[in-house]
Amino acid sequence: MNFHSSPIIDQVGLEERAARLMKRSIKKSSKETALKLALNMIDLTTLEGQDTDGKVRQMCYKAMHPHDDLPDLPTVAAVCVYPTFVKTAKQALKGSKVKVASVATAFPAGQSTLDVKISDTRFAVSEGADEVDMVISRGRFLKGEYNYVFDEIAAVKEACGKARLKVILETGELSTLDNVRKASDIAILAGADFIKTSTGKIKPAATPAFTLCMLEACRDHYYKTGQMVGMKPAGGIRTAKDAIRNLVMVRETLGEAWLSNEWFRFGASSLANNIILQLEKIRTGNYHSMDYISID
């Protein structure tokens, strides 16, 4: 397949567009609605070597009950865990609308064989994962082996069955906007349900420019085919202000159809608490201490 048709990115122009969009603001009357929408788009995540069943269950409770003092809050969109904790999360979330996502394909480096990556994916799905977050082979991509990257994504997509596939580009390692656009196009053509900026382990991650570049890839694919593809910026989005600015970028680039957790997510666990603090400020007029909010 020919992957040399991706557009060359005007870096200066795109960065200026991203900067303008990130300076947009919304009316105070709409802020609460925007914050609740952003909360409902978060994938709460724990991907550490010290993860335990207890930690995962606590995170699942937080996913369903972000802050009990604000009973009208929505749940988050999903929890994201390693494949070995999918069953624990699935049981803890039973009866809720919160999805279980699992990283796979030798996350975060992706340095393994295709057989291992397929096995990893199938195990996660067999344990009950609703979504799979895979990493692309960045070394292969940077060597120009675009067909290999395409075939690998397509094979993982097939292994997902009914589970939705998020394809992580690791923008910090791809470095350039041209590379990010080409990798986005490859992932979309190979069957990605979502494209995702990063693992959260490498910086820079979800910069405004990288995010806008990927949103435009989703937009151009929709214009050509009528098929929607989701987007998930992850890494570095920590404040409610950051979240709202990203929602503005989505609205201006893709339209209101993407403003739901079916098509847009935030990979930013610490973001949830910042949003909760902002919602408490709207309700009471005062900022609450972090001591009143659970960490996990």
What this model shows, in words?
Helix 10 links the parallel strand 6 and strand 7. The mean pLDDT is 94. The protein starts with 10 loop residues before the first helix and ends in a 12-residue tail after the last helix. The chain is 48% helix and 9% strand. By secondary structure, it is α/β, with parallel strands linked by helices. The longest helix is centred in the last third of the chain and has 18 residues. A seven-stranded parallel β-sheet has the order 1-2-3-4-5-6-7. The protein has one domain: Aldolase class I (TIM Barrel). The radius of gyration is 18 Å and the shape is globular. It has twelve helices and seven strands. Helix 2 runs antiparallel to helix 12 and helix 7 packs across helix 9.
Question: How many discrete structural domains?
Answer: 1
**Number of helices, counting only DSSP H or I runs of 4 residues or more:** 12
> What general outline do the C-alpha atoms trace?
globular
Number of strands: 7
| Order of adjacent strands in the largest pleated sheet | 1-2-3-4-5-6-7
Gyration radius, in Å: 18 Å
Helix content: 40-55%
CATH A-level architecture: Alpha-Beta Barrel
Mean pLDDT across residues: 94
Taking the alpha carbons of the first and last residues, their distance comes to 44 Å
Which structural class best describes the helix and strand composition? alpha/beta
Let me know the largest β-sheet: 7 strands, parallel
